[in-house]
Amino acid sequence: MSPSLIAAAHWIGPHPGFGWWFLFIPLFWVLVIAVLFAVFGRRWRRAALANGYGPHGRINPGRQAEVTLAERFAQGDIDEVEYRKRLEVLRANAPLPPSA
């Protein structure tokens, strides 16, 4: 048998290369990106909240007091009469915003 026929017969069988392992390459990169997003995304979200983004970031003290008062009212710690009295006091003592 000639060497070219032997070589040709060899390649008829299973193809060399990655085979089904090829599916692990994209799966690996998806996993790497997901882990990076989970680790660094959490850090970025925490930093964003600390720097003023989000529901309670860099909120002025008067507004923060109103938010806290509203939370206490929603939880049932204070009744509506007390809530309205305290809100009136907070708004009466709030500093005026600077004029433009």
What would your notes on this structure say?
With 100 residues, the protein is an all-alpha fold. It is built from four helices and no strands. The chain has helices at residues 3-12, 24-50, 61-75, 80-92. Helix 3 packs antiparallel against helix 4 (80-92). It is rod-shaped, with a radius of gyration of 33 Å.
List the helices and strands and how they pair.
Blueprint: H1 3-12, H2 24-50, H3 61-75, H4 80-92
Helix pairs in contact: 3-4
- Count of helical regions: 4
- How much strand? under 5%
User: What integer value in Å does the Rg equal?
Assistant: 33 Å
Q: List SSEs in N-to-C order.
A: HHHH
> Quick one: how many beta strands?
0
Shape: rod-shaped
What class, by secondary structure content?
mainly alpha
Tell me about the biggest sheet? none
- Our measurement of the CA-to-CA distance between the termini, rounded to an integer number of angstroms, reads 96 Å
**Could you estimate the helical fraction of the residues in percent?**
55-70%
The whole-number mean of residue pLDDT values reads: 76
Spans of at least 5 consecutive residues whose pLDDT stays below 50 are none
